[in-house]
Design brief:
281 residues; alpha+beta; 7 helices; 32% strand; elongated
């Protein structure tokens, strides 16, 4: 029994060590070498690094984080933070939560931006942050470093496929969002995608979800219950005056829920909704 316990302990230690080995792809970045100790965090200790924000990241299926300093030949440092999430959609979700409204986007990875001298970008299932050291490297060098890291993750990189469903006309830039939990206040309505549009003098949102039909039906029926709507669910378009979120247009087809929110006059925007539905189908 004792021998079995020792063997299992060695196996667990070895497994943990393997899981904390810095990914090979990031060990070499042209013009830079790793400097100092590499820091590793997972779901159990992320709090130690980002304190109160950890629960927010965990809500987007955070998996692990590496924090590593890199030095150029002049001894100037940049700090790389590699937040890995369960899949590209969850990485996209946390990235868009932190992307400022009206951010000037850069072609880094699938999408990136610069804020307060740091670079933030999305690449597959990674949300990446690159911070300048002191003394700072020039901004163009920081961008070059960031683009190298992105290319080590994916080349080319792209936003999640779901956002190709949405019409381009009248779309407001940088408003794509992934709603991880309880969209529209409906329990279990997890994973809807939304985009903001400016049309006919109104700012509105389109949303789409595609998945298991049984789950789609359960979500809508919970919504019906909340509104005390007692008719049987059919494949059709519905319109409601929701006391909590205003006018709602909701379209259901097998395995697909699409809709329109925030419009005072929804009928003016139905063409946009129809275009979305056609693409999702």
């Amino acid at each position: 029994m004792r021998r079995f316990f020792v063997v299992m302990l060695v196996f667990v230690v070895a497994l943990n060590g393997f899981s904390q080995d810095y990914p090979e792809q990031f060990k070499k970045v042209d013009g830079y070498s790793i400097s100092g100790e590499k820091q590793f965090y997972d779901r159990d200790n992320l709090y130690d690094y980002i304190n109160g924000a950890s629960d927010f990241y965990l809500g987007y299926k955070f998996q692990d984080l590496w924090v590593v300093d890199y030095a150029n030949p002049d001894g100037k440092l940049v700090t790389l933070e590699l937040y890995r999430h369960k899949n590209p959609m969850f990485a996209f979700g946390i990235y868009t939560e932190e992307r400022p409204q009206g951010a000037k986007l850069s072609s880094i990875g699938a999408e990136g931006f610069i804020e307060s001298g740091a670079v933030f970008f999305l690449a597959k299932d990674y949300y990446v942050k690159v911070y300048n050291g002191y003394p700072a490297v020039p901004e163009d060098e920081l961008l070059k470093f960031s683009k190298q890291v992105a290319s080590l993750i994916c080349e080319p990189c792209a936003l999640p496929e779901q956002f190709t469903w949405f019409p381009k006309k009248f779309k407001v830039a940088s408003t794509e969002r992934y709603m991880a939990e309880n969209f529209m206040g409906i329990t279990g309505f997890n994973g809807a995608c939304t985009v903001v549009y400016e049309n006919e003098g109104e700012s509105i949102r389109l949303f789409a979800y595609k998945g298991d039909d049984e789950h789609c039906r359960a979500v809508i029926e919970r919504y019906f219950t909340r509104l005390k709507y007692k008719k049987r669910l059919k494949e059709k378009r519905y319109q409601f005056d929701d006391p909590y979120i205003g006018k709602v247009v909701l379209n259901y087809k097998e395995g697909v829920i699409c809709g329109l929110l925030d419009a005072k006059e929804p009928e003016k925007h139905l063409k946009l909704l129809d275009d979305l539905i056609e693409t999702v189908q």
